[in-house]
Amino acid sequence: MPADPYPRAVLDLLAAAGDRPVIEHGTRTVTGAQLLGLVRRLAAGLRAAGLGPGDGIAMMLGVTPEAFAAMIAGYAVGARVVGVRPGLPGAQARHVLRQDIAAIVTDADPAQGALTVAELLETPDDGGPLRLSGRPHDVARLVHTSGSTGTPKGCAQTYAAMDAAWTARPAAWPPAIKELASRLQRYLVFGSLASQVMMEYGVLTLAAGGTMVVADKPAFPDAIVEHRASASVITVPRLYRLVAAQRAAPADLSSLRALMVSGSPVEASRLREARDVLGPVVFHGYGQTETGTISMATPSDVPPSVGFPPDVIDVEIRDPDGVPVPAGTDGELYVRTPAQAIGYWADPGETAEVFAGGWVRTRDLGHFDDDGRLYLVGRTRDVIIVNANLHYAGPIERALAASPDIAEAYVVGAPDEDTGEAVHAFVVPAAGRTPDVGSLRTLVRDRLGDGCVPATITVIDEVPSGPSGKPDKRLLEPPDRTG
Fold first, then answer.
1. H or E stretch including 284?
2. d(CA 442, CA 453)
3. pTM of the predicted structure, to 2 decimals
4. 392 and 277 fall within a common domain
5. pLDDT tens per residue across span 204-247
6. In terms of Cα–Cα distance, which of 167, 184, 190, 214 is closest to 6?
7. Are residues 117 and 235 in the same domain?
């Protein structure tokens, strides 16, 4: 464990980079020394604003060198850094910003009372050693879940956990990460640095000696070609679309060496097809916001395995009674990682459900083979993964049932070429009422956001029942939309 707290390892990477380019943004190139300078000035600005250990700072930022530096500066002053994803529905954004937030930092038009990056950068750097104020047991960052339960849950990771992560420490990289790091010469960054995946691969790129390349328009394959990217994160739907585009009109992807598939499982045959069309570049990671990376399959691994968990990560497969099961037997995955969250911020009930005895209950189902490879086979949760975001069926059902036209609502998921999975709803009308599908979709969108809006809404007389007489959603078949 380093003598100085996080982000000492990241600052050391920037200092070692010196005049080497570490971020490209349009025509602008930022070196390690320049980015370190931005961190120092932004940390000074935050301290001048009275912010320090234990303070919550909401980062409402784009993807720029200053945004990356602001996140690191927040850690330098020992704050609780809260990345706010763009596009959050109003109610969810208000929920995040009311969770013990002392200040908002933005690079856009500031709301009343918000601090701007430009204002913070006006604070001069005193030239002395950059003081790091993080305390081991303080929460260093909150990474919010998708909000599919109605309000996003903030996974709380301490400074001690950030220090324990391997990302910025090459000597601690497991074999799959070493192989991936060797391909990160030009890592394409887009979307939001509030994304745990996007930010962590950015730090890994620094440690690997590569350059983060910002794509303001992340359409694939165009962005890969334009920026000569060697690596990028990709969701399952985007992977499928890229494979289809390459079959129809191949683009020059000769620079590409790694695509890190994130967010949801890839069907084995589709993964083989992707590797046939794109070459040996597809890495399939498995992890959760609560745990970080659990395992990663490299291009040489055989689908549908998600690879070997590193030695520093404990994975147990347990039966419904919590008893570990032997290799080859399916069960629920319980995971323990050095950098895992300690719980959900201000949510003791959900924390007790998921975090128990030092383990994280993933609520994913899988098994090991005799050689120790990990396989995923399903979920214990009633969730649908749309565009790599988990959306719980329950809140969608409750939103639909809030309509006076609806007596009962049931939601299921089904594979979808465009979004990985899609939400499909079945509704029983209230007596004498005729549901309006457009109004129901608007109701869900306003309450839970676009990702929860059903792709189809089917009116039924009653829900099918299982042998027990209870409603059985497994008997509901979504409409075939392949035609």
1. strand 282-288
2. 8
3. 0.83
4. no
5. 999 999 999 999 988 999 999 999 999 999 988 789 889 989 99
6. 167
7. yes
